[in-house]
């Protein structure tokens, strides 16, 4: 079979597997000190309603600026911290900073009633027996109403121990924290279990959005996910929207929320607020123009 073929082995050597492993080991150690050395930050990507393009929230995404190597992608360093267990400390850092940002934005009037910040949660965090309690305690400490924070968990995070996950999500849901299943359709979740989980949102992965225009199969998939979500009274968020045509197709399927580079890349907090102001102003102008009509 392919993975054992000599060809593949040669390829691995030419990619220098050892050097990569050394690099990963270095990163794994370096990130342990990243928080205390101020190398971590959050960026925020807006989520919008696809029909009226109203900003209804933001996803918080972690950034790590290594002193010598520069920006390291979370796609690389998050799995490393999941393997080492450091994701627990990092995850707490993310929760703390997302909540303190929410407090600041609430104070400044940036957060209105429906706006919330979505925080990504790794499988290993959710598997803690006191995960939900910790989140709720933090909210209390920040005096932040639960609706201002939502969580994004992956299918693997849910499926590793479904009963535990269900308990944790139930506790969060009861307190008013919305939970989304991230990258839906890319992992191994069982549809039979889905109906037993108190989640409020399914996120369509970028992998299915990317080729919407040219792939009927991906269109069908996005459509099925949307119908599935609505069948369980869940919202649908499409991620990775880069083109108007994709947004139009998704809207046509009934997908109500989207995020992607078409609207904005993830931005540092201050730039995010400036982006929102400009976006809102342009929205009002375009609504007024369409009212004036030709
Ligand atoms: P995710 O949660 O599915 O986040 C969406 C990713 O898609 C982000 O990548 C975002 O920058 C990117 N994206 C959004 N719109 C577009 C688009 O239109 N085009 C393209 N090409 N990409 C788009 P990012 O920030 O590199 O994060 C990658 C993954 O790392 C995240 O996927 C998430 O699984 C993980 N991650 C990031 N921050 C955190 C965190 O604080 N905690 C945990 N546990 N995981 C995180
Ligand atoms: Mg996410
Ligand atoms: Mg995602
Ligand atoms: Mg994704």
UniProtKB/TrEMBL annotation:
Write the protein's name.
Answer: EAL domain-containing protein
Residues that span the membrane, as ranges: none
Q: Which organism is it from?
A: Vreelandella zhuhanensis
The chain positions of domain EAL read 24-280
């Amino acid at each position: 079979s392919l993975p054992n073929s000599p060809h593949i082995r040669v390829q691995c050597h030419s990619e220098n597997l050892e050097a990569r492993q050394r690099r990963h080991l270095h990163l794994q150690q370096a990130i342990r000190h990243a928080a205390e050395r101020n190398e971590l930050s959050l960026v925020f990507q807006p989520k919008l309603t696809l029909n009226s393009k109203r900003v209804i929230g933001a996803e918080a995404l972690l950034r790590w600026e290594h002193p010598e190597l520069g920006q390291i992608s979370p796609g690389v360093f998050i799995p490393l911290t999941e393997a080492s267990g450091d994701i627990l400390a990092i995850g707490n850092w993310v929760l703390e900073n997302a909540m303190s940002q929410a407090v600041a934005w609430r104070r400044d009037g940036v957060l209105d009633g429906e706006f919330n910040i979505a925080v990504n949660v790794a499988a290993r965090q959710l598997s803690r027996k006191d995960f939900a309690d910790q989140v709720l305690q933090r909210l209390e400490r920040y005096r932040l109403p639960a609706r201002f924070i939502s969580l994004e968990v992956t299918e693997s995070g849910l499926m590793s121990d479904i009963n535990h996950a269900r308990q944790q999500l139930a506790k969060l849901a009861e307190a008013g924290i919305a939970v989304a299943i991230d990258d839906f359709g890319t992992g191994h979740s069982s549809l039979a279990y889905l109906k037993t989980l108190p989640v409020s949102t399914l996120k369509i992965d970028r992998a299915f959005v990317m080729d919407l225009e040219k792939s009927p199969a991906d269109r069908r998939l996005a459509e099925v996910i949307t119908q599935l979500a609505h069948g369980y009274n869940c919202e649908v968020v499409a991620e990775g929207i880069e083109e108007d045509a994709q947004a139009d197709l998704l809207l046509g399927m009934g997908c109500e929320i989207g995020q992607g580079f078409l609207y904005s890349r993830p931005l540092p907090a201050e730039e995010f607020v400036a982006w929102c102001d400009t976006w809102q102003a342009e929205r009002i102008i375009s609504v007024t123009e369409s009212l004036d009509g030709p």
